[in-house]
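== Protein entry: sequence and backbone fold ==
=== Local backbone shapes as whole numbers ===
==== Amino acids and backbone structure tokens ====
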Amino acid sequence: MSCPESRFAALPASVSFEAGAALPVAGLTAWQALKGSMPLAGKRVLVLGGAGGVGHLAVQVGALVGR
């Protein structure tokens, strides 16, 4: 299976391979938690634990999708 180059992102030198590999797991978990409430425009979203990995990304997704 192949993937177009445009679907990839460069990993900054300051980010370890392990941390970069874990990011999609937290990001997809946040997305799945919010997708049942989509569209978010005009809605309020409460994220408990917004300082953790999944919570932080849920706040970011909610802010971007809720515009």
